[in-house]
Write a structure and sequence with these properties.
By secondary structure, this protein is an alpha/beta fold. It contains five helices and five strands; from the N terminus they run βαβαβαβαβα. The chain has a single domain, classed as HUPs (Rossmann fold), CATH 3.40.50. The structure holds adenosine-5'-diphosphate.
């Protein structure tokens, strides 16, 4: 059984994240969306709200689970018997960062990172822009997965 975690901050979880998970289900038998809980990192949405939004997005999808963690990502992966970390790549900007943490994670633990390129239509979608729009009172429905309301 191939199990992977999809770790992130997901503040908020967007349609770009959703698309990576749905495509990841073609590669992995089971996916755990793992919300990193870093006490010192201030988020717009609290951890319960982020978890509830992701559960809503994958309601009825039995191969997707949602968890929170506050340890090192590879320690969490090993604790849940996941041999892989799934990540998404939008741009060259993402690339350098993903390569550094992917290499570090593999050297630390043997856990491999699998990266999917974003679909072109979601390349501009980011949690940061979604939060900016919210702060100006704009609707971010187009940024959210189907069936998810804020
Ligand atoms: P982190 O704080 O770990 O970067 P994020 O919640 O920002 O967490 O992102 C989690 C993962 O989703 C990262 O691999 C990121 O590159 C990817 N991602 C974010 N937005 C998109 C998108 N629009 N399309 C594809 N992948 C994305």
């Amino acid at each position: 059984m191939k199990r992977a975690i999809f770790p992130g901050t997901f503040d908020p979880f967007t349609i770009g994240h959703y698309s990576i998970v749905m495509r990841g289900l073609k590669i992995f038998d089971e996916l755990i969306v793992a919300i990193g809980h870093n006490q010192s990192k201030k988020t717009l949405f609290d951890i319960e709200k982020r978890k509830a939004m992701i559960e809503q997005a994958f309601e009825g999808e039995k191969r997707v689970h949602v968890s929170t963690y506050d340890s090192l990502t590879v320690d969490f992966a090993q604790a849940v018997n996941a041999g892989f970390i799934l990540r998404g790549l939008r741009s060259v900007g993402d690339f350098e960062y993903e390569r550094t943490i992917g290499d570090t994670n593999r050297i630390l633990s043997g856990v491999e990172t699998v990266i999917l390129f974003t679909e072109a239509e979601y390349a501009h979608i980011s949690s940061t822009v979604a939060r900016d729009l919210i702060s100006y009172g704009k609707d971010i429905k187009a940024f959210l997965p189907p069936n998810v309301v804020l």
